[in-house]
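U., I forgot to send this yesterday:
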Amino acid sequence: MQDGKLRIIQESVPGKQVTLAHVIASPDEIIFNKLGLDPTVDYDQAAIGILSMTPSEIAVIAADVANKSSKIEMGFIDRFSGTLIITGRISNVQSAIKSILIYLQTRLGFTVCEITRT
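Result:
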C-alpha cells in the first residue's frame, strides 16, 4: 500500500470448462440467415447448437466429437474464442452436444454445464 491507496491486480485464468451448451429448437429462418448458416433446412425439425468452452482450442476437439457422434453440420468453429455452432435435426444436435459434454467431462476432466434449450 502506497500513499494510503490499495493496488489490486486481477488475472483471469480460464479452467477446463464448458460454460454454455444450448440448443435452439426450430429457430426462425432469420437466425440462420444472420449467422450465415444453411438456409435450406426444414425449419420445423432444425436446431442450432451453441457451445462456449475454455481453453478455446478445445472447440476443435468438440467439433470432431460432434461430427463423429451424430449427423450434424458444422456452422462455425472458433479456436480463438472457444465457440462451436452446429446445426441439424433437433435430436441430432442434442445428441452431439451430449456426446461432447460426456467426452470432455469423462475423458479430459472438464467441468461442464447443463444443456439448455429454447
